[in-house]
Amino acid sequence: MQNQFTTKNQSVDKAFSIIEYMSSMRMPLKLLEIAKGTGFPASTVSRLLTSLTDRGYVYQNKETLKYSLTLKFCRIGDSAKSGLNIAEVVHPYLIDISNKLGETAYFAIEQDMMLVYMDAVGGSNISNAGIQRIGKIAPLHCAGIGKLMLLNYDYKKLKKFIETKGLERFTPNTLCTEEDLRDELNKVKKEGYAVDDQECDEGIRCVAVPVRDYTGGIAGGISVSGPADRITPESYDDYLNVLFPVSKKISERLGFE
């Protein structure tokens, strides 16, 4: 009985390996191409492809004999997506971040060229005033997570964003020119994280990292925020050492590889 279960589990694992390989190639493939790419015997691949074809997940062109995935996977993806509340996924991780760092941890996304705070967990070092940000909006160009969301913008869309929303000054540190903002975004893209260096509120710094989803794009971001005398440039690594592993776990939950 144990051998039967083991064999079935191996078959399921191989079937998913075939599906993932076909998805990564993004083109119809012949049986031997799939066998070579996965490293499985052609007989095994043929058997599993037949099962997947019978179930409607794979289609074989009778003329070219090539196999491709069907849109049935989209239906499953839509079902999974509709049942996923990202804020609920993120919340336990925010608690963990806040407990470890003692500062308020945030999760925010972009909507209509603005940053929307979806969740926050207050830290032990401060009051729960940060929780009042949930549901509130902030400008993208000066918030840490906002800068991360702007990485999704191409040149023209960023230009339109600046023309539409403007680059309002909130503090002496706010980036208020297109050149300064583009330079900052290049730095953020290179380093993989963003900082709000007292750009939204004087005396407050924020360190933010991206959360990616199955598309590879930035779906949102997580951050910690606190007084500038506690969150200093010299301490950024201490925060990032907590934030990066958490963002990786959340991104994996959202289908990012």
TrEMBL record:
Gene3D superfamilies reported for this sequence: 3.30.450.40, Winged helix-like DNA-binding domain superfamily/Winged helix DNA-binding domain
Gene Ontology biological-process entries: negative regulation of DNA-templated transcription
MF (Gene Ontology): DNA binding; DNA-binding transcription factor activity
InterPro entries according to UniProt: GAF-like_dom_sf (IPR029016), HTH_MetabolicPath_Reg (IPR050707), Tscrpt_reg_IclR_C (IPR014757), Tscrpt_reg_IclR_N (IPR005471), WH-like_DNA-bd_sf (IPR036388), WH_DNA-bd_sf (IPR036390)
Ranges where the IclR-ED domain occurs: 72-256
HTH iclR-type domain sequence ranges: 9-71
PROSITE patterns reported for this sequence: HTH_ICLR (PS51077), ICLR_ED (PS51078)
Domain of life: Bacteria
Keywords: DNA-binding, Transcription, Transcription regulation
PANTHER family, per database record: HELIX-TURN-HELIX TRANSCRIPTIONAL REGULATOR, ICLR FAMILY, HTH-TYPE TRANSCRIPTIONAL REGULATOR RV1719
Identification of the protein by name: IclR family transcriptional regulator
Organism: Candidatus Allocopromorpha excrementavium
